[in-house]
Structures are given as structure tokens and as C-alpha cells.
Write a structure and sequence with these properties.
heterodimer, A: about 260 residues, mainly alpha, B: about 260 residues, globular
Chain lengths: ~260, ~260
């Protein structure tokens, strides 16, 4: 009885979560122009449009480049920052940890708006240079990379670094050959997190982007408000593709993680 | 590189500079703009504008009620879900958990597009029930962020405490109310912060559902579109203060190590 209730409850929630995504996926393979509309034949037209339509292609490519470049910059910056802060005195440590917490708890819209005012309104950095957009995404993502490296630093055996120095390594060598290799899991998960945060962002992007540039988020928002059917149905295909990619990535990450877990045992 | 001599704590300098320039400075600028007018003169006008206008106060009130209702709905759905996932002896429950939080990594604008299509299918004109649909939309968007921290805290629960309680004569309800629930408070608190603040500011969800919005975030959006930086900064400052208060309150209860946006990756 209780078990049946549990299963029904979980099933209901899963239906709530997945029915919209799956229905959209089904319709993405048809010629229908709206969900619930008439279907006369099945087609891959929406998927082909994603690659044929230049506007859509550029938008997807731009979103990915932005996410990976910013995630890479954030990862380097936050990794070095986390190592440095970890070995700093108490006061700078507290200050940096607190400042790092600001973009994490702050609403994205306030982060985006404040960066827009500082860089675009006051310092008059052109939006078209992509500098405000890039900085915005690094501000959004770097603190999360920092937070995913911190636990690895706490777990690290401190004496290894000292030993490397005693054995004649320079601080730089000890850093690259001893400290950073031990942080790799944290650095990798921080990088992945940065990519997903950047891909999902809407607010920081709207307030800092060049007017001719769109990411998936800003493009989708404009498309749902407008009535262009072709790009609207192509977005159903995009949604389905992203869903499949996310499933694939999650499966691969977990298979790798369980393998690593087994090797340790 | 080999000749480079530095102490490890100096490595925090680039990150510290970055945080000062792009995290702290923008906030200082927001405060300055909030208390000046277009000519840069000191004024309380923006402050008075906010609290004297029924429009902005109404928006604040509407935001609060929407955010609180959304948070409660998320909690009511997420708690039993997380409880079943964490406490029952379903095999491979980790995979099941992944199913519930996987939407986190799908672009939220695409998910809302899917939801909008389904809601229109059921309701016809979705702008007839703005409050209800706002709650559904926000819940759909934020539910995974509530399930994950609850799952984490319920998963960590020490079984022997529950057994001790029932050995000492407590019935199931008492065990839940006096042991399980109090011990899951850190999870509840971090789930609530993950949902409460975004549902006050994420106006895009409402914008996409029915093209008009009445929450705090949308005020910033409309001042941004009309280049009114001063009033926009005042709204940002008010949001910052709300966020600060919420963070201050929740920090006393929350789990220090939880980094919920990336706990799985």
C-alpha cells in the first residue's frame, strides 16, 4: 500500500516534469505548426532548419563558444584564486570568500544590471566588443568554480607541497606538478558547472550583449513573443537535441564516476 | 617559469583584483546611482519614487506573494519526493534522482516554451489565469533546485537516530515530526533560498507565458529598456537588501558545504 503510493507519487511528478518536453519532442518530428495542431506527415524539416538557417546556426554556435571560452577563463582564474586564497592569512581569506559569495547569492538580474551600469554606462565600453558580455559570464561562473575547488583543497595533503620544495622544486613546479594534479576532479566539475550556468543564463546576457548577438536564451524569449513559425518549430527540435545531449552527458559522467569509484576500492 | 619565485598566497591577487573590479565595484556603482539623479546630484527621489508609487509597491507585494506561493508549492511537491527517493529501498535510486534533477541542465527558456505549449493546449488562453500559470511556470522551472538539497539532507540522516526514536516508543508520525523534519531543516532552508529569490526576479518565465509581468525583476527590465539607470539602480538596491536579509537569516541554518547548483556534476 505504502509502496504503491510512493511509486504513484514519483510517477506523477515525473509526468509533470517530462510530459511537456516529450510532447514537444514528438511534435518536433512533424510538420505541425503548433502543439495539438494537425499533423499531416512526419519530417526532419525542423532539425534540418537548425543547420540550414544561418541565423539559428550562428546563434547556437555563438552560445557554445561564449560558454566554453568563459568557462575556460573562469576555471583558470578561480583555480589560481582558490589556491592562493586557501594559503592566505585569515583577513584576506575571509574577504575573498565573502566577495566570492556575492554573485552566488545575488539575483542574476542585479549582477547583470550592475555590470551593465559600470562597464557600459560609466566606463563606456562598447557592447559590440563582447567585453561586457564576457566579463558578465565570467562573474557569473567563476565563483561556482571557486566553490567546487575549495573542498578538494581541504582534502589535499599539505606536506606534499612542502616535500616538493624540500626536494628542490621551485614554487611554480610544485604548483603545476604537485598541487594542481590533485585538484583535477574539482577543476573539471567546476568547468562543467560553469558551462551549464553560462548556457542557461538569460539576464546577464540581455543586459550586456551586443544588440545583434543572441544566445539560445535570448533568442528563444524573442521567438516565443513573436510569431515566426519556422524558427518556433525549429526551437522544438533544439529543445529535443539539448535534452538528448544532457542525458548523454549525465550518463557518461556517471559511468566515469562509478568507474573511478570502483578503481579506488 | 622555473626561475619564478612567489609565495602561494600571492596567487590570490589576480582573483582578488577581479572580484574588486567586477563584483564589488558594480555594487558600489548601484548604490551611487540609486541616490543620484540623471545629472549626478544627490537625491532621495528614486527612493521616494519607489515607496510613493502604488504601482511599484503593488509589484513588490505581488512579487512577494508569488514567490512565497511558488516556494510553498515547490516544498510540498519536493519534500515527499526527496523523502521517498532518499529513505525508501528502491534499487538504483541514484539513477531515479538524476531523472528528477536532470531538467536543471536543460536551458530554462526552452523548458518554459514546452510548458507554454502544453498549458495552452489545456487552458486555451493562458493569460486568463495569470497567477496560477505563474506559479505553475516557476514551479516547473525551480522544482529540481528544491529536490536536490532536500535529498542531500535526508540522505545524510543517521538511521540509528530514527531507530532509537521508535525503540523508545515514538510512533511513525512522531519520529517524522520530532526527528526527521528537524534534521532536514538545513535542506529545507537551502531549497527555499534556491527558489524564493529567483521567483522574485525571474520575470522571463512570466514574460514568455503571457507577455506581461508584474514582479520586481520586470521593473529593472523596464527601467533598463528606457535607459533610466537611477530608478533601475534603486530597484536593484532594494532587491540586494532583501537578498542580504534572506541570506543572513538562512546562513544560520544552512549546510555550509552544500554547493547545490553543481552537487551532481
Amino acid at each position: 500500500m505504502k509502496k504503491a503510493f510512493n511509486i504513484i507519487w514519483l510517477a506523477l511528478i515525473l509526468i509533470f516534469i517530462y510530459v511537456p518536453i516529450l510532447i514537444l519532442a514528438v511534435y518536433s518530428f512533424t510538420d505541425a505548426s503548433m502543439v495539438g495542431g494537425s499533423i499531416s506527415y512526419f519530417s526532419f524539416e525542423n532539425y534540418l532548419n537548425l543547420f540550414k538557417n544561418e541565423e539559428l546556426r550562428n546563434m547556437i554556435f555563438g552560445t557554445l563558444v561564449l560558454a566554453f571560452v568563459c568557462a575556460a577563463i573562469s576555471t583558470v582564474l578561480a583555480t589560481i584564486g582558490a589556491i592562493g586564497t586557501f594559503y592566505s592569512k585569515k583577513l584576506p581569506k575571509t574577504l575573498i570568500n565573502t566577495a566570492n559569495q556575492v554573485p552566488v547569492v545575488n539575483a542574476d538580474i542585479v549582477t547583470g544590471f550592475s555590470i551593465c551600469i559600470l562597464l557600459i554606462v560609466i566606463m563606456r565600453v562598447g557592447k559590440d566588443t563582447f567585453i561586457p558580455l564576457g566579463i558578465g559570464h565570467v562573474v557569473l561562473t567563476a565563483p561556482f568554480v571557486y566553490l567546487s575547488i575549495l573542498p578538494k583543497l581541504k582534502q589535499m595533503d599539505n606536506s606534499l607541497y612542502e616535500a616538493a620544495l624540500d626536494l628542490g622544486a621551485t614554487p611554480a613546479q610544485a604548483l603545476f606538478k604537485v598541487v594542481i594534479p590533485q585538484l583535477i576532479p574539482g577543476i573539471l566539475s567546476g568547468f562543467m558547472l560553469a558551462v551549464t550556468l553560462s548556457l542557461d543564463d538569460y539576464f546577464i546576457t540581455t543586459y550586456t550583449k551586443p544588440s545583434t548577438f543572441d544566445t539560445i536564451s535570448t533568442y528563444v524569449v524573442n521567438a516565443t513573443k513573436g510569431s515566426q513559425t519556422e524558427s518556433k518549430t525549429a526551437l522544438w527540435a533544439l529543445s529535443t537535441l539539448i535534452f538528448l545531449v544532457v542525458i548523454a552527458v549525465v550518463i557518461v559522467m556517471n559511468v566515469l564516476a562509478s568507474k573511478r569509484g570502483k578503481e579506488k576500492k | 617559469m622555473k626561475g619564478l619565485r612567489f609565495s602561494r598566497s600571492q596567487l590570490c591577487i589576480p582573483y582578488a583584483v577581479f572580484l574588486i573590479l567586477f563584483v564589488i565595484a558594480p555594487l558600489v556603482v548601484i548604490v551611487y546611482y540609486a541616490f543620484t539623479n540623471g545629472e549626478g546630484q544627490f537625491t532621495f527621489d528614486n527612493f521616494i519614487n519607489f515607496f510613493a508609487s502604488t504601482n511599484t509597491l503593488g509589484t513588490l507585494l505581488y512579487s512577494f506573494s508569488l514567490a512565497i506561493v511558488t516556494t510553498l508549492v515547490c516544498l510540498v511537491i519536493a519534500y515527499p519526493t526527496a523523502y521517498i527517493l532518499a529513505r525508501s529501498n528502491i534499487r538504483k535510486k541514484y539513477v531515479l534522482l538524476l531523472l528528477f534533477i536532470l531538467p536543471m541542465w536543460i536551458n530554462f527558456t526552452l523548458r518554459i516554451t514546452a510548458l507554454k505549449e502544453i498549458l495552452s493546449l489545456f487552458e486555451g488562453n493562458i493569460s486568463s489565469y495569470p497567477f496560477l500559470n505563474s506559479v505553475i511556470g516557476m514551479t516547473y522551472d525551480f522544482l529540481p533546485f528544491m529536490i536536490l538539497p532536500l535529498y542531500t539532507s535526508l540522505q545524510k540522516l543517521d538511521n540509528s537516530l530514527l531507530e532509537a526514536a521508535s525503540d523508545l516508543g515514538a510512533n511513525k508520525l512522531t519520529v517524522f515530526l520530532r526527528v526527521t523534519l528537524p534534521l532536514s531543516v538545513p535542506g529545507i532552508i537551502s531549497g527555499v533560498t534556491m527558489v524564493l529569490l529567483p521567483s522574485m526576479t525571474n520575470y522571463v518565465v512570466l514574460d514568455m507565458l503571457y507577455n506581461s509581468t508584474y514582479i520586481m525583476g520586470s521593473l529593472i527590465g523596464s527601467y533598463f529598456s528606457s535607459y533610466d539607470w537611477n530608478n533601475g539602480s534603486m530597484i536593484s538596491l532594494i532587491l540586494l537588501i532583501i537578498i542580504f536579509i534572506v541570506t543572513l537569516v538562512t546562513n544560520r541554518f544552512s549546510d555550509k558545504d552544500a554547493n547545490n547548483r553543481g552537487a551532481i556534476l
